[in-house]
Protein backbone atom coordinates (compact mmCIF):
# COMPACT_ATOMS: atom_id res chain seq x y z
CA UNK A 1 0.00 0.00 0.00
CA UNK A 2 1.42 3.34 -1.08
CA UNK A 3 0.08 5.41 1.83
CA UNK A 4 0.02 2.81 4.59
CA UNK A 5 -0.66 4.42 7.99
CA UNK A 6 -0.32 7.97 6.61
CA UNK A 7 -2.83 10.48 7.96
CA UNK A 8 -4.38 12.62 5.25
CA UNK A 9 -6.78 15.56 5.44
CA UNK A 10 -8.76 16.17 2.26
CA UNK A 11 -10.91 19.28 2.09
CA UNK A 12 -13.96 19.39 -0.13
CA UNK A 13 -14.07 15.62 0.24
CA UNK A 14 -17.84 15.27 0.32
CA UNK A 15 -18.27 15.09 -3.44
CA UNK A 16 -16.48 15.03 -6.77
CA UNK A 17 -12.69 14.98 -6.92
CA UNK A 18 -12.35 15.23 -3.14
CA UNK A 19 -14.58 12.22 -2.56
CA UNK A 20 -12.69 10.08 -5.06
CA UNK A 21 -9.37 11.21 -3.59
CA UNK A 22 -10.45 10.31 -0.06
CA UNK A 23 -11.56 6.86 -1.17
CA UNK A 24 -8.43 6.30 -3.25
CA UNK A 25 -6.15 7.27 -0.38
CA UNK A 26 -8.04 4.98 1.98
CA UNK A 27 -7.64 2.10 -0.47
CA UNK A 28 -3.90 2.71 -0.33
CA UNK A 29 -3.83 2.48 3.47
CA UNK A 30 -4.20 6.12 4.53
CA UNK A 31 -6.20 7.19 7.55
CA UNK A 32 -8.42 9.79 5.94
CA UNK A 33 -10.04 12.92 7.35
CA UNK A 34 -13.06 13.67 5.16
CA UNK A 35 -13.53 17.44 5.50
CA UNK A 36 -16.41 19.35 3.95
CA UNK A 37 -19.23 21.78 4.71
CA UNK A 38 -22.05 19.36 3.95
CA UNK A 39 -22.58 16.98 6.85
CA UNK A 40 -24.68 14.49 4.86
CA UNK A 41 -22.00 14.22 2.17
CA UNK A 42 -19.26 13.81 4.77
CA UNK A 43 -21.13 11.05 6.60
CA UNK A 44 -21.81 9.20 3.36
CA UNK A 45 -18.15 9.20 2.29
CA UNK A 46 -16.95 8.16 5.75
CA UNK A 47 -19.43 5.29 5.88
CA UNK A 48 -18.41 4.09 2.41
CA UNK A 49 -14.72 4.17 3.28
CA UNK A 50 -15.31 2.22 6.48
CA UNK A 51 -17.53 -0.28 4.67
CA UNK A 52 -14.62 -0.90 2.29
CA UNK A 53 -12.32 -1.62 5.23
CA UNK A 54 -10.67 1.79 5.47
CA UNK A 55 -10.24 4.27 8.31
CA UNK A 56 -11.93 7.65 8.15
CA UNK A 57 -12.94 10.59 10.30
CA UNK A 58 -15.59 13.09 9.22
CA UNK A 59 -15.08 16.77 9.97
CA UNK A 60 -17.48 19.60 9.14
CA UNK A 61 -15.39 22.64 8.27
CA UNK A 62 -15.66 25.99 6.55
CA UNK A 63 -12.13 26.63 5.29
CA UNK A 64 -12.69 30.39 5.31
CA UNK A 65 -12.99 30.27 9.12
CA UNK A 66 -9.58 29.92 10.74
CA UNK A 67 -11.00 28.73 14.05
CA UNK A 68 -12.79 25.88 12.27
CA UNK A 69 -9.62 25.00 10.37
CA UNK A 70 -7.58 24.92 13.58
CA UNK A 71 -10.22 22.66 15.14
CA UNK A 72 -10.01 20.34 12.13
CA UNK A 73 -6.26 20.00 12.68
CA UNK A 74 -6.74 19.45 16.41
CA UNK A 75 -9.44 16.80 15.83
CA UNK A 76 -7.16 15.03 13.35
CA UNK A 77 -4.27 14.91 15.81
CA UNK A 78 -6.53 13.72 18.62
CA UNK A 79 -8.17 10.99 16.55
CA UNK A 80 -5.27 9.72 14.43
CA UNK A 81 -2.24 10.99 16.35
CA UNK A 82 -0.56 12.85 13.53
CA UNK A 83 -0.79 14.52 10.12
CA UNK A 84 1.21 13.56 7.04
CA UNK A 85 -0.75 14.84 4.04
CA UNK A 86 -3.03 17.77 3.30
CA UNK A 87 -4.98 17.98 0.05
CA UNK A 88 -6.36 21.49 -0.37
CA UNK A 89 -9.20 20.47 -2.65
CA UNK A 90 -12.13 22.62 -1.47
CA UNK A 91 -13.20 25.14 -4.09
CA UNK A 92 -16.19 26.91 -5.60
CA UNK A 93 -17.16 28.86 -8.70
CA UNK A 94 -19.34 31.94 -9.16
CA UNK A 95 -19.00 32.67 -12.86
CA UNK A 96 -19.65 35.95 -14.60
CA UNK A 97 -17.96 38.13 -17.16
CA UNK A 98 -15.76 40.96 -15.93
CA UNK A 99 -18.34 43.61 -16.79
CA UNK A 100 -21.07 41.79 -14.87
CA UNK A 101 -19.22 40.23 -11.94
CA UNK A 102 -20.42 41.43 -8.55
CA UNK A 103 -18.27 42.17 -5.53
CA UNK A 104 -20.00 39.31 -3.70
CA UNK A 105 -19.13 36.85 -6.50
CA UNK A 106 -15.52 37.98 -6.42
CA UNK A 107 -15.19 37.88 -2.63
CA UNK A 108 -16.88 34.51 -2.20
CA UNK A 109 -14.56 32.71 -4.62
CA UNK A 110 -11.44 34.46 -3.31
CA UNK A 111 -12.34 33.57 0.28
CA UNK A 112 -12.82 29.85 -0.37
CA UNK A 113 -10.30 29.14 -3.12
CA UNK A 114 -7.44 31.33 -1.95
CA UNK A 115 -7.86 32.34 1.69
CA UNK A 116 -9.14 28.86 2.56
CA UNK A 117 -6.04 27.29 1.03
CA UNK A 118 -3.87 29.67 3.03
CA UNK A 119 -5.66 28.82 6.30
CA UNK A 120 -5.38 25.06 5.81
CA UNK A 121 -1.86 25.17 4.43
CA UNK A 122 -0.50 27.30 7.24
CA UNK A 123 -2.21 25.29 9.99
CA UNK A 124 -1.04 21.95 8.54
CA UNK A 125 2.49 23.19 7.86
CA UNK A 126 2.97 24.12 11.51
CA UNK A 127 2.26 20.53 12.54
CA UNK A 128 4.36 19.02 9.75
CA UNK A 129 7.31 21.33 10.44
CA UNK A 130 7.45 20.18 14.05
CA UNK A 131 7.96 16.56 13.02
CA UNK A 132 10.11 17.35 9.99
CA UNK A 133 8.05 15.81 7.23
CA UNK A 134 4.80 16.17 5.29
CA UNK A 135 3.10 16.71 1.96
CA UNK A 136 0.81 19.58 0.97
CA UNK A 137 -1.09 19.31 -2.31
CA UNK A 138 -3.07 22.24 -3.71
CA UNK A 139 -5.85 22.22 -6.30
CA UNK A 140 -5.09 24.59 -9.15
CA UNK A 141 -6.73 24.36 -12.58
CA UNK A 142 -6.06 24.60 -16.28
CA UNK A 143 -8.11 27.79 -15.94
CA UNK A 144 -5.49 29.19 -13.58
CA UNK A 145 -2.78 28.58 -16.15
CA UNK A 146 -4.58 29.82 -19.26
CA UNK A 147 -7.68 31.75 -18.16
CA UNK A 148 -11.27 31.10 -19.16
CA UNK A 149 -14.19 33.21 -20.33
CA UNK A 150 -16.41 34.30 -17.44
CA UNK A 151 -14.06 33.16 -14.70
CA UNK A 152 -12.01 36.17 -13.64
CA UNK A 153 -12.40 35.27 -9.96
CA UNK A 154 -11.78 31.54 -10.35
CA UNK A 155 -8.77 32.00 -12.65
CA UNK A 156 -7.25 34.51 -10.24
CA UNK A 157 -7.51 32.08 -7.33
CA UNK A 158 -6.12 29.12 -9.25
CA UNK A 159 -3.17 31.16 -10.49
CA UNK A 160 -2.69 32.40 -6.93
CA UNK A 161 -2.61 28.81 -5.68
CA UNK A 162 0.31 28.13 -8.02
CA UNK A 163 2.17 31.09 -6.54
CA UNK A 164 1.55 29.81 -3.02
CA UNK A 165 2.61 26.30 -4.01
CA UNK A 166 5.97 27.42 -5.36
CA UNK A 167 6.57 29.78 -2.45
CA UNK A 168 5.72 27.16 0.14
CA UNK A 169 7.95 24.61 -1.61
CA UNK A 170 10.88 27.00 -1.23
CA UNK A 171 10.08 27.87 2.37
CA UNK A 172 9.15 24.43 3.67
CA UNK A 173 11.60 22.16 1.87
CA UNK A 174 14.18 22.53 4.62
CA UNK A 175 11.48 21.34 7.04
CA UNK A 176 11.05 18.11 5.05
CA UNK A 177 7.73 19.21 3.55
CA UNK A 178 6.98 18.77 -0.14
CA UNK A 179 4.41 21.08 -1.76
CA UNK A 180 2.89 20.53 -5.19
CA UNK A 181 -0.21 21.45 -7.16
CA UNK A 182 -2.46 19.60 -9.58
CA UNK A 183 -4.09 21.51 -12.42
CA UNK A 184 -7.10 19.54 -13.66
CA UNK A 185 -8.64 20.17 -17.03
CA UNK A 186 -12.38 19.80 -17.48
CA UNK A 187 -13.50 17.01 -15.19
CA UNK A 188 -16.94 15.43 -14.92
CA UNK A 189 -18.03 16.66 -11.46
CA UNK A 190 -21.06 18.40 -9.91
CA UNK A 191 -19.22 21.68 -10.54
CA UNK A 192 -18.85 21.15 -14.29
CA UNK A 193 -22.44 19.91 -14.42
CA UNK A 194 -23.43 23.57 -14.08
CA UNK A 195 -21.72 24.41 -17.37
CA UNK A 196 -23.73 24.53 -20.64
CA UNK A 197 -23.60 21.34 -22.68
CA UNK A 198 -22.22 23.20 -25.69
CA UNK A 199 -19.27 24.39 -23.60
CA UNK A 200 -18.50 20.85 -22.45
CA UNK A 201 -18.73 19.58 -26.02
CA UNK A 202 -16.33 22.31 -27.09
CA UNK A 203 -13.86 21.24 -24.39
CA UNK A 204 -14.06 17.64 -25.60
CA UNK A 205 -13.26 18.75 -29.13
CA UNK A 206 -10.28 20.78 -27.95
CA UNK A 207 -8.69 17.79 -26.25
CA UNK A 208 -6.53 15.50 -28.39
CA UNK A 209 -8.11 12.64 -26.45
CA UNK A 210 -11.63 13.85 -27.35
CA UNK A 211 -12.94 13.29 -23.85
CA UNK A 212 -13.39 14.95 -20.48
CA UNK A 213 -11.56 13.71 -17.42
CA UNK A 214 -13.03 11.92 -14.44
CA UNK A 215 -12.45 12.46 -10.71
CA UNK A 216 -10.39 9.29 -10.44
CA UNK A 217 -7.88 10.75 -12.93
CA UNK A 218 -7.17 13.59 -10.50
CA UNK A 219 -7.27 11.31 -7.45
CA UNK A 220 -4.54 9.17 -9.02
CA UNK A 221 -2.40 12.28 -9.61
CA UNK A 222 -2.80 13.29 -5.97
CA UNK A 223 -1.93 9.74 -4.93
CA UNK A 224 1.34 9.81 -6.83
CA UNK A 225 2.35 13.20 -5.44
CA UNK A 226 1.40 12.16 -1.89
CA UNK A 227 3.38 8.94 -2.06
CA UNK A 228 7.09 8.31 -1.53
CA UNK A 229 7.34 7.71 -5.27
CA UNK A 230 7.35 11.50 -5.58
CA UNK A 231 9.97 12.03 -2.85
CA UNK A 232 12.04 14.26 -5.17
CA UNK A 233 9.11 16.25 -6.57
CA UNK A 234 8.27 19.63 -5.06
CA UNK A 235 7.18 23.04 -6.30
CA UNK A 236 5.66 21.59 -9.45
CA UNK A 237 2.27 21.92 -11.12
CA UNK A 238 1.04 18.64 -12.59
CA UNK A 239 -1.44 19.29 -15.40
CA UNK A 240 -4.02 16.53 -15.79
CA UNK A 241 -6.05 17.95 -18.64
CA UNK A 242 -6.11 15.54 -21.57
CA UNK A 243 -3.90 17.91 -23.55
CA UNK A 244 -6.72 20.45 -23.82
CA UNK A 245 -4.28 23.36 -24.08
CA UNK A 246 -2.00 21.90 -26.76
TrEMBL record:
Pathway: Lipid metabolism; fatty acid biosynthesis. NADP(+) binds at residues 12-15, 62-63, 89, 154-158, 187. Transmembrane segments: none annotated. CDD domains: BKR_SDR_c. PROSITE patterns: ADH_SHORT (PS00061). One of its GO terms (molecular function) is quinone binding. The keyword Transport does not apply. Belongs to the short-chain dehydrogenases/reductases (SDR) family. Homotetramer. Catalyzes the NADPH-dependent reduction of beta-ketoacyl-ACP substrates to beta-hydroxyacyl-ACP products, the first reductive step in the elongation cycle of fatty acid biosynthesis. This is 3-oxoacyl-[acyl-carrier-protein] reductase. It comes from Anaerobranca californiensis DSM 14826.
